[in-house]
Amino acid sequence: METGAALLLAALIITTVYASEVSTSFNDGVRQMVCLVNGPGCGDRTWVDEDRPDEPEQFEWGSGGSDTSDNKNLGMQAAAADPYNWTDQEWTCLDGFWSALSSWDAGMVDPTTGARGIVGFNPAQHGALPSGFDGSASAQIGWGLSYIQATYGTPCAAWRYWQSTGTY
Fold first, then answer.
1. What residues have CB less than 8 Å from 72, skipping those under 6 apart?
2. In the chain, where does DSSP find H-type helix?
3. Same domain for 92 and 18?
4. Which domain does 42 fall in, by range?
5. Domain count for the chain
6. Would 155 be classed as within a structural domain?
7. Model pTM greater than 0.90?
8. Do 78 and 16 reside in the same domain of the chain?
9. Residues in a beta bridge with 109
10. Together in a domain, 76 and 34
11. Euclidean distance between CA atoms 133 and 140, whole angstroms
12. Shared-domain flag, residues 42 and 89
């Protein structure tokens, strides 16, 4: 008997709150907060009717792939070898630079600029894609090291230029 009375009282309270302005004010407040972050429901449809967004792409620019550590090791070995001899600070700059560009993912393509691979090769700026470049981390790293040396001298100089201009 007591349980039935408690359930009846709870149902009465819920019905009263739902019918009152409190629930409307609460729902309007939630909708306003959702709209502040450009969430669903800021147009013709209410936020509770919004469809689930599409699944994201498997990779996004700069998210890295499963072979990131292998690619970094290739890059570190190539940078430390002749003719570059880039270690310590220069390696730190190169790692930071290419991590920012592609997360060392040889298969990445920036949908905005068209830059490709670990080194951010952009055909619009750098010309035709070198032979064997697509999908080959070692080919990309070789081209990137050579380009950095010929154009900027060192990875730190290239990274500083990229940080100030967004290109290299």
1. 95, 104
2. 2-19, 21-36, 68-80, 88-102, 123-126, 137-151, 155-165
3. no
4. 2-49
5. 2
6. yes
7. no
8. no
9. 116
10. no
11. 6
12. no
Q: How far is CA 18 from CA 45, 92, 102, 112, in A?
A: 21, 60, 52, 48
User: Within a domain: residue 119?
Assistant: yes
| 122: amino acid identity, one letter | N
Structure tokens given for 72:
């970094």
Residue 56 maps to a domain: no
Strand partners of residue 116: 109, 121
Q: pLDDT (tens digit, 0 to 9) for every residue of the chain, 168 residues total?
A: 788 888 888 777 777 766 766 666 777 777 777 676 665 556 555 545 555 555 544 444 444 455 888 999 999 999 999 999 999 999 999 999 999 888 999 998 888 888 899 998 888 888 888 888 887 999 999 999 999 999 999 999 999 998 898 777
Tell me if 74 is assigned to some domain: yes
Q: Do 138 and 119 meet the contact criterion of CB atoms below 8 Å apart?
A: no
How far CA 53 is from CA of 3, 38, 42, in Å, comes to 43, 14, 15
DSSP assignment string, 70-98: HHHHHHHHHHHSTTT---HHHHHHHHHHH
